[in-house]
Amino acid sequence: xxxxxxxxxxxxxxxxxxxxxxxxxxxxxxxxxxxxxxxxxxxxxxxxxxxxxxxxxxxxxxxxxxxxxxxxxxxxxxxxxxxxxxxxxxxxxxxxxxxxxxxxxxxxxxxxxxxxxxxxxxxxxxxxxxxxxxxxxxxxxxxxxxxxxxxxxxxxxxxxxxxxxxxxxxxxxxxxxxxxxxxxxxxxxxxxxxxxxxxxxxxxxxxxxxxxxxxxxxxxxxxxxxxxxxxxxxxxxxxxxxxxxxxxxxxxxxxxxxxxxxxxxxxxxxxxxxxxxxxxxxxxxxxxxxxxxxxxxxxxxxxxxxxxxxxxxxxxxxxxxxxxxxxxxxxxxxxxxxxxxxxxxxxxxxxxxxxxxxxxxxxxxxxxxxxxxxxxxxxxxxxxxxxxxxxxxxxxxxxxxxxxxxxxxxxxxxxxxxxxxxxxxxxxxxxxxxxxxxxxxxxxxxxxxxxxxxxxxxxxxxxxxxxxxxxxxxxxxxxxxxxxxxxxxxxxxxxxxxxxxxxxxxxxxxxxxxxxxxxxxxxxxxxxxxxxxxxxxxxxxxxxxxxxxxxxxxxxxxxxxxxxxxxxxxxxxxxxxxxxxxxxxxxxxxxxxxxxxxxxxxxx
Length: 604
Fold this sequence. Notes:
This protein is α/β, with parallel strands linked by helices. The protein has helices spanning 9-17, 28-33, 35-67, 71-119, 123-126, 131-141, 150-173, 175-182, 185-222, 224-229, 233-286, 291-332, 393-400, 423-428, 444-449, 457-466, 470-475, 493-506, 523-537, 572-578, 581-589, 593-603, and strands at 354-361, 370-377, 382-387, 408-413, 416-417, 430-433, 511-515, 541-545, 557-562, 565-570. The model is unreliable at 1-21 (pLDDT under 50).
């Protein structure tokens, strides 16, 4: 059984719901997790309705007492009014606080689970996402779900309940005025539904454009050197401006819709207020209604109409949030590679070989890169892999690391299929130094320790020395605690590559994969690292993809690939004598004149 860092129980519950989810199903487990907060919010909402009714009653009673000169009754009502005010203020505070807690707790959980989900997706899935779109999920989308969580969720209960409660009380005061007032309500409901549909459609487009704009910004900032060198500033600025204008237009459209809706809602409220006041004045003149009762009525009439108008507005806001949840659901619907986070667990050296058996694979089903590919790599040996670009060299590493699954065939480590190994076990066997070096924002020490969090200071220094980077690090003002900037922006290409090699060494894995990892190094540094790796190998199995053939001249075996197949194999001297692809590659780049002449003498 592998050891894992556990992800939230909440995420497992959510995953079970996803296959048959509706838009709101994604949020359901998060709401259930914080059920205590939502229960408190429900109590606060019911209390708010009660306070609304009792305050209107208080207003009518104290008005009638004043008109009738009932001083004793006024004295009794004033303390009650003070209590009502205190309870209302307290409830307002707790309602606001609980809403903030419920809303932000769910957003916090959702951000963490979204990152957890993305980190556990297979590489072939994450490769399909664009950076800007993912950033939009974490920022714009998650921040747009407010209408589906917190107290807004209860508005679908509170607002109708408020209208019903108020209507019952108003009916008790004057059934004639109540009937007249309630006739206006359907207009508010119908308008809200129509506006909600329009806003949801617009909001979906807005989220999509924001994702595209984030992608453009990501390309601009990460490819700044290419942008400047190819004079792309004007072109990229124009593309961004075009998307920004579309966003502005959609936002304006949303603003118009909300403006029309708010104006209509206020108009309906004012009409209801004026009708109640006018007819109420007639009833007072006839003696069928008291001044206090009319004051209570007109005070509550807004609480009869605005909840229905607000319910329609809440529905419109719900539609905007639903568009964001839809986008998040698209990410969560992809099945993860594991239920838990893989972690590094030290492994002993291989006892048996690495075997690629009858491998067929293509990133695109219509374009096969490897077909019936077979290769055995003995334990503890150094193997070089060479060949022209696009022949499948890096693909072998991708498959060995389990980033992609083979279409047919199998890969074995120590006689065990990698299909039977968890990502933790499989990737703990391997230290990978990629062709394109990636360093994280932070210090040099932090970057080195990512490969082995439990390592020691001595091992960090030793790995840096082997990678010929220690002296450079020591020359920096803060040494190993020096900040290297985003993606190692403060370092040269060769320095970044040597740090990546040191990071790979520090993992102390039984298999080392090096994908043209000395390509950015000068000849002298490459020479030093080559000899350092010779000392480092020990019982390790080393596989090196080489562009510079000098890197793998001393390998125990060199594999030459062409069109996804092995066309030659053997030691450097043997392959030179054989002629063919390896000889052609070697003499195209070669080494020194003396070394070329020595190679030619072997052929003779």
